[in-house]
Design goal:
By secondary structure, this protein is α+β, with helices and mostly antiparallel strands. The chain is 30% helix and 25% strand. Helix 1 packs parallel to helix 5 and helix 1 packs parallel to helix 13.
């Protein structure tokens, strides 16, 4: 049986980063991963360019039953610390929108950086290695794996959540937590497209490929970014963001003219072109294909502007400012970027990520009940939680 100081299960962002930090302290570290390809989620993130952090990352960009838990890690290893490391490696990057940082070239640059950091720190990374069982012993843990038995003082679980099962996602980390008596908060798909009820899908699927600037609101939370109509339902940044706050059965309100007053625009059009159809006036602000479908869908008659009586134009504008939609559900873990819920933070130390009642057992990254918004926040949580654990394991 091979004896080590630290074993990290999971060679994703959090696991590799934690392993490198521990290795730099002179610890003998082994990383085990069951996947065939290392860092699959890193490689496909950000459309293959890896949105590796966000310049504005703070604890306010995360969901958790204990919203204060992530503060310590995020303040001790910040986005600027990681940006500094990226710069050290000469990786070119750019800000896309809202502080989101992407590699100029490829997500491979970030994965290579992490593997290089592990290599420099003497960390061994082994893939295609299934962990069959874990046992607590007096001074650590023993692991029975497909590649032999191992013993370690510190065991780090960095196996992620349930999102994107094609990349190897599994409930492994939650099962380990439960094996050692830790609570796991209920999990569900986050940052995920909505699916629609048949009556909505029949109309809206015809708009597949159309993107609109919008504000999406639910449960006293709003996000102002694009929405995208797809043949399956609704996607785009604003939809992905609000999906993490939405509960099944609830409605979502979309303001499809978030930066102005559509009624004022229509009244202006009425003064200038009273004989123009409503659809013509709206086509100045929306794609024509969208307008043609939206008017009958929203129950608005298309006629010359001068024929609208009283507050009818105002009501038409309001239908675009306050579009109420009740999603049928979400596309689930198959396309979700993250998993909401996870290992209960009340049972972990916010300073070290160690289980309070199980010495030498650590949980980092997505497996923990800390979920970031869209835009590089989940990677920052991986770096921050991995870094703090790496200082002590």
């Amino acid at each position: 049986m091979k004896k080590l100081d630290v074993i990290v299960i999971g060679a994703g962002a959090a696991g590799l980063f934690c392993a490198a930090q521990a290795g730099k302290r002179g610890r003998n570290v082994l990383v085990l991963d069951h996947a065939k390809r290392l860092g699959g989620k890193i490689l496909m993130s950000g459309g293959g360019r890896c949105n590796f952090t966000n310049m504005y990352a703070s604890h306010e960009n995360f969901l958790s039953d204990n919203p204060h838990f992530c503060k310590s890690a995020l303040s001790r290893y910040t986005q600027w610390d990681f940006i500094g490391l990226v710069a050290e490696y000469g990786i070119a990057y750019h800000e896309k929108t809202l502080g989101q940082l992407f590699c100029d070239d490829s997500a491979k640059d970030i994965l290579q950086m992490l593997l290089s950091e592990c290599n420099k720190a003497g960390v061994t990374v082994t893939n295609q290695c299934e962990v069959l069982s874990i046992e607590k012993i007096e001074n650590g843990y023993t692991l029975n794996t497909a590649k032999g038995d191992f013993q370690c003082e510190s065991l780090v679980i960095a196996t992620g959540g349930l999102s994107m099962p094609k990349l190897g996602a599994s409930p492994f980390g939650y099962k380990v937590a439960e094996q050692f008596g830790l609570q796991v908060k209920p999990t569900r798909a986050g940052l995920v497209p909505f699916t629609l009820h048949d009556e909505d899908k029949k109309v809206l699927s015809e708009l597949s490929g159309i993107s609109l600037d919008a504000s999406a609101s639910c449960n006293n939370t709003s996000f102002n970014e694009n929405i995208l109509f797809t043949h399956r339902g609704l996607s785009g940044p604003a939809v992905l963001q609000i999906s993490s706050f939405w509960e099944p059965g609830q409605g979502v309100e979309f303001d499809l003219f978030p930066h102005g007053d559509l009624d004022a625009e229509l009244q202006n059009a009425l003064q200038k072109q009273p004989d123009a159809l409503l659809s013509t006036a709206l086509a100045n602000h929306y794609p024509k294909r969208y307008v043609q479908a939206a008017l009958p869908y929203l129950g608005i008659e298309n006629k010359p502007l001068k024929q609208y009586q009283g507050k009818q134009l105002q009501q038409a504008a309001l239908a675009f400012h306050q579009w109420q939609l009740k999603p049928n559900g979400t596309e689930g873990y198959r396309t979700a970027e993250v998993t909401l819920g996870g290992v209960d933070t009340n049972q972990l130390s916010s300073k070290t990520m160690e289980a309070k009642d199980v010495k030498g057992l650590y949980f980092i990254g997505e497996v923990v009940d800390v979920t970031g918004w869209l835009g590089g926040f989940n990677f920052q949580w991986a770096w921050s939680s991995g870094w703090v654990a790496g200082q002590v394991v």
